[in-house]
Amino acid sequence: MLRLVALGEIEVEWDVFSLAIQNFDKDIAEFDPARGAGVPALRTCVLVRDTDGNEALGELYAALAKRHHHRSEDIDNGSVIVAALTDAGLDPSRYDQAVGDPATFDTLVADHRALVDRTRAFGVPAIVLDGGRGPAIFGPVISNPTEDDATALELWNHV
């Protein structure tokens, strides 16, 4: 997606989706935001989006993904989230602000539910086409993404 953005092929409005919330089978009042897998990172994402904007959120997502998927770092670890904020050129204090403010969890839950209600999303990545008004698709998950721009564009056109 980031390559397609850089090529000017698409525009992305980043949002949040929590597998921990999606798979929680009790009343959300019983959910522990400090212990839900990925929730501290997503609360940080909510704060970054709301304070620094959409592009900053995309940078943070990329930094978190690099640390998690390429370096096998635990993004439930606060120091990893702080390092990802730094990698993304963002204020590292955003992590403490996010986990210290219960409103970020409330926003995460509300945004997650709105996405699920609107699209019936059930996993990540969920891509909603046409500026968020079109159909939603789950994926694609590309195990070996191409390094070639032309092939990336061709693959996106097939999607």
Structure description:
The chain has 159 residues and is mostly helical. It is built from 8 helices and 2 strands. It has helices at 2-6, 19-22, 39-52, 54-70, 78-87, 94-100, 102-119, 149-158; strands spanning 126-128, 136-138. It has a two-stranded antiparallel sheet. α4 (54-70) crosses α5 (78-87). The longest helix is centred in the last third of the chain and has 18 residues, at 102-119. It is globular, with a radius of gyration of 16 Å. The relative contact order is 0.15. The mean pLDDT is 92.
Task: Describe the protein's topology.
Blueprint: H1 2-6, H2 19-22, H3 39-52, H4 54-70, H5 78-87, H6 94-100, H7 102-119, E1 126-128, E2 136-138, H8 149-158
Antiparallel strand pairs: 1-2
Helix pairs in contact: 3-4, 3-6, 3-7, 4-5
Can you tag this structure with a few keywords?
159 residues; mainly alpha; two-stranded antiparallel ribbon; 8 helices; globular
In short:
By secondary structure, this protein is mainly alpha-helical. The protein has helices at 2-6, 19-22, 39-52, 54-70, 78-87, 94-100, 102-119, 149-158, and strands spanning 126-128, 136-138.
Largest sheet: 2 strands, antiparallel
CA-based shape? globular
Low-confidence stretches: none
Overall mean confidence score, pLDDT:
92
Q: SS-based structural class?
A: mainly alpha
